[in-house]
């Protein structure tokens, strides 16, 4: 027990010597507590002096006792005077010096009290030591209680008084005096422990209060910094929902002065609407909420605040207001609005996009269940050519002008949207009959047919339109869109630059087209394709010089299908590349079995020209067949050179480097035929059948043929006339200097097994010109060719 006490005692005195105990702040608190009890201590000292004087007087006048009482009274008076002065001039007193004086004063007071007790109380009461002991205990209690905030002074006083009292009782020497001394010693220990625990509580209380004050100051500092530099701000309302003590930050974002905001209802800052109603209900109910967004107008602009709050509850549990934090989310809301706009509108033309158009169409169908609306599907004619030849910048301007012109033909309730690329759609919400939709569609076609002047260039961009009317052509959005698309396809297939109303036959034709597309995918694997060959005859010698390979499809159900029925579908779906590769390989394998003077010509699609496999396919096919490259002639149309001219010319030069011959087909029907002849040295020019058809009846056709043949002769090129079907045509072509002819007059396309000399050369197969002239019937020519 003693060991534990010594340890505790050492810890106590060590703790009292910590830096916190020696700071001016702590000393100031000690002195303030010490002086605050000076009045009560003085009253207690006066009572003790009176008691000791009364006791001392009963035993007669004793100069030593009188001196002790006067000394004790003097020290009590001095303490009272200094305490009063301290309270008046607290800020001007050196705290550590004052503390030292108090300790010294307490020590001297203890000595004085001990002397007073021994001379004025204990010795006169030698025959009543018990009463004397009780008075001593009372004095010790009063003294230690007065200065317990300074434990060393209190303990010093206790020890001094105890020592003097015990010494006095020891001088008396009686048994009762010794018991009185024991009682004083016991209470001395008790009061000492009490002083130590009392001071401990005092110090802990002060330090905790300081920590709380420091924490509160830190929180306040953080809050001030938060409002000054942060994006958020604090708000508080009273029981009536009115703003209380608005901060400078709050006033700044609200564009009002703090005085003007004071006692304004928080809800009145926001614009009427659904968001404000939600916020008002939450504030009225006093419910906690988080991230409630409300709109308000400030400086002519819309702003949005996000607010979170909790109720303020008093000790009785009643809600006395709300307190929370707010942040300006205007930038996020504007970004969100921009994203929503981009999700529903086209960035180039500012028209609704496909998504918004479909939503508008769906709502219109719900409102008008009895029909009375139509949709138009529009596609700008030859827009890819405009993009390829004039550039995408011009193409974008064409789209903008097209959007404006389409809108100019519509009513206020109608909706026009850009679906993507050069495709547009129109929702006619007020049409009562199909002819109304047709009239508007025709107006759009007429408006788009007018020239556009963009960057000093005149551009003519027509439009094709497909029309579908509800409910005749569908009662759902998907059905109307699909049927309008079918009508658009029909308009493009029948000449472009026109509007077509949906008809059921279009759906049937599309179904048939889809069946062909599906069957075409499997045609190669099922060995349903074959080549027919049409001869090209030299007019001077009358000999067949080559054959043009023409693709045929032996459909298991529809029979022989001509290229015009499936080649466009193959080009649209991309199957033309695979078909073209098969034609090249098959034709070269067949030529390998022909006489050496016979060549073969193969048509190339524009889609094939863009394929990276074209040149490798031809190289491999030549190697596999063993045919000389000069016996292969590739026919391209001017359309090939109209698109990606540089890339296509590079491919042609690669083919020319292999030794393959290149022919320009359908010459004279393009936009820049003569320029194409200058850009690439073709081996052959094929005159289009539109000029050959009337060469025997129109002088202008003869003049064109004459010019082409003369041009080709000067450039070292062969000329071939296509579509020769009459003897008069043949005669005129011979007179105009045409090199070769091809057509039904000479022979229709034939299967490969009908080509003469296929396995062995037969010289008699070719006929002189006179024989061709006498063979007027196609059937006779075919038999001779066979």
Overview of the structural elements:
56% of the residues lie in helices and 17% in strands. The chain is built from 30 helices and 21 strands. It has an eight-stranded mixed beta barrel with strand order 12-13-15-16-17-18-19-20. It has a five-stranded mixed β-sheet with strand order 6-7-5-10-11, with helices on both faces. It is elongated and about 175 Å long. With 786 residues, the chain is of the alpha/beta class.
Care to give the gist of this entry?
This protein is an alpha/beta fold. Helices cover 56% and strands 17% of the residues. Helix 3 runs antiparallel to helix 6 (129-146) and helix 6 runs parallel beside helix 8.
Q: Categorize the overall geometry.
A: elongated
Main beta-sheet strand count, sense and barrel state: 8 strands, mixed, barrel
Gap between N and C termini, in Å? 136 Å
- Roughly what percent helix? 55-70%
Low-confidence stretches: 1-12, 760-786
* Helix/strand class: alpha/beta
Multimeric status of the protein: single chain
Q: What is the strand tally?
A: 21
Strand content: 15-25%
Number of helices: 30
